[in-house]
Amino acid sequence: MAEADLLCDYIAKRPKHLRTDDFKTQFKTKVSAGFDPEVDLEFIGVANQTTMLASESMAIGAKIREAIIERFDEEHTSAHFRSFGTICSATQERQDAVEEMMEKPPDLMLVIGGYNSSNTNHLAHLCRQYTDTFHIQDASCIDVGAGTIKHKVELDPGAEEILDEDWLPRGAFDLGITAGASTPNNKIGEALLRILEIRGITVELTAGLQST
Fold first, then answer.
1. 134: Cβ–Cβ under 8 A, 6 or more apart, which residues?
2. Alpha-helical segments (H) within 116-184
3. Nearest to residue 140, comparing CAs of 174, 112, 179?
4. Which domains does the chain carry?
5. 132 pLDDT more than 50
6. What is the pLDDT of residues 75-113, one digit of tens each?
């Protein structure tokens, strides 16, 4: 968003905008060869990383559209600006579902998926804004015997795991579970089973169905 603000200031020619040379220096590793901001920022399309957090992407697109309006007026906006919805539908569905869940946040949220998965990291980041959240790779991160959990607490894919003890709330609590777009359903079930085992709840599996 900070870079988007610099871009928008330049597009709209606001008083605080960077000089052309400073703008080129700021974005020198992020543009195509021969890029000229004085020419190439008059017609803009916005596309999104397929697993980006949709709300952030939309906010950036909206800011750029506002700058285009400021520069060319609203009547000519459609000739100078287009936004492309390239976010994966499975990713979008999960983000929408989590946002709905967070209207009344559970006491604890479990997010399951690879630490290098962009969409899983964004789901965990979204959940942390509302409730205690644990991002795990799979059920192996939950040690039933010790009652511990290994999880990642930062948005950075390279962040190290940490180990938490006594992580489940005492007594009855609401548990929310979500998973990255590529996380198989059975991985979600395995993690839930381990949490139930820690609480001493016996689960019988018959003909592919689960009953407690």
1. 108, 109, 110, 111, 149, 151, 164, 167
2. 118-128
3. 112
4. 2-83 (no CATH), 89-201 (3.40.1010.20)
5. yes
6. 889 999 998 777 677 788 888 899 999 999 999 999 999
Tokens, residue 172: 């009855």
Which residues share a beta bridge with 112? 136, 179
Give the H or E element holding residue 44.
strand 44-46
Token code pair at residue 93: 């569905």
With 0.85 as the threshold, say if the pTM is over it.
no
pLDDT digits (tens, 9 = 90+) for 179-212: 998 898 899 999 999 999 999 887 776 555 454 4
Dihedral angle, C-alpha 163, 200, 111, 134, nearest 10 °: -30
**C-alpha to C-alpha distance for 110 and 103, rounded to whole angstroms:** 17
